[in-house]
Amino acid sequence: MLISPRKTKFKKAFKGTNKGIATSGCEVIFGQYGIQVLDNVLMKANTLQALFRIISKRIKSSGRIWQRVFPHKPISKKPIEVRMGKGKGAVDHYAASLQPGKILFEFDGVSHDEAKKIFDEAIVKVGAKCRLLVRNFGNIC
Length: 141
Description:
21% helix; 4-stranded antiparallel beta sheet; Aldehyde Oxidoreductase, domain 3; 7 strands; 3-stranded antiparallel beta sheet; alpha+beta
């Protein structure tokens, strides 16, 4: 089951823009390590779920995971081979609009070497520039 909001005020959303740098959610607060995105990204819900599975598989029961972003934005799409017009398409999936500096996940309960291995596995799925942040080691927003 994919991550999606239970209830939204409007069924379909405007495209909008994704400018600027993240002003909140850019410091490691809960865990010891954090995965920070360095690009403007519209990240799908299934990508976030894949990241969560990779991290939880490596951490197992020894640590904790905190998901810092949630896919609130509905992305609509028209079916294939449909003529122009006739309104906006149905909601296809949900995505999280991320600015540079936003923390995706935080985790704790692993060594520094294990955290690097988790990060290396996880960034393959992201498709954007990311970096591993360590708490109390000079987090730069």
